[in-house]
Amino acid sequence: MNYMPGTASLIEDIDKKHLVLLRDGRTLIGFLRSIDQFANLVLHQTVERIHVGKKYGDIPRGIFVVRGENVVLLGEIDLEKESDTPLQQVSIEEILEEQRVEQQTRLEAEKLKVQALKDRDDEATAFS
């Protein structure tokens, strides 16, 4: 097998199922249908997978065009091992609610950190 530089090496992966991790943290799973010299991707039968703890949910997205600069990771999915997951699949509604609760918890923890740092700064200023 000859080595092909850059995105040309992905030609062999056309029509295979892939997982794509995007720069904004989203995870897409779909069949790679096209790729160009800028690593722009076209995915078919795409789902957006949301993970929260040990649960996940898939939101159908259909055909998805991804700009190459937004791709962090691209990997082929082994179809034989795809169903071998310790995660529990839940409904879209349930995973979206779990995601909202997780984001709210994270936001509250961040507010507490900011307040603690502000309090420390105020104490340090008072002693100077």
Describe the structure.
This protein is α+β, with helices and mostly antiparallel strands and 128 residues long. It has 1 helix and 6 strands. The protein has one helix at 92-127, and strands spanning 17-22, 27-35, 41-52, 55-66, 71-76, 88-89. The chain has a 6-stranded mixed beta sheet. Strand 3 and strand 4 form a beta hairpin.
Unreliable stretches covering 5 or more consecutive residues: none
**Number of helical elements:** 1
Q: What form results from the Cα inertia axes?
A: elongated
Using only C-alpha atoms, the radius of gyration works out to 21 Å
Quaternary: single chain
Largest sheet, in brief, is: 6 strands, mixed
Q: Assign the structural class, choosing from mainly alpha, mainly beta, alpha/beta, alpha+beta, or little secondary structure.
A: alpha+beta
Q: Give the neighbour order of strands across the main sheet.
A: 5-1-2-3-4-6
Q: How big a fraction of the residues is strand?
A: 35-45%
* Average pLDDT metric: 89
Number of strands: 6
Distance between the termini: 69 Å
Order of SSEs:
EEEEEEH
Fraction in helix: 25-40%
Family: Belongs to the snRNP Sm proteins family.
Domain Sm: 5-80
Coiled coil: 93-120
Keywords: Coiled coil, Cytoplasm, mRNA processing, mRNA splicing, Phosphoprotein, Ribonucleoprotein, RNA-binding
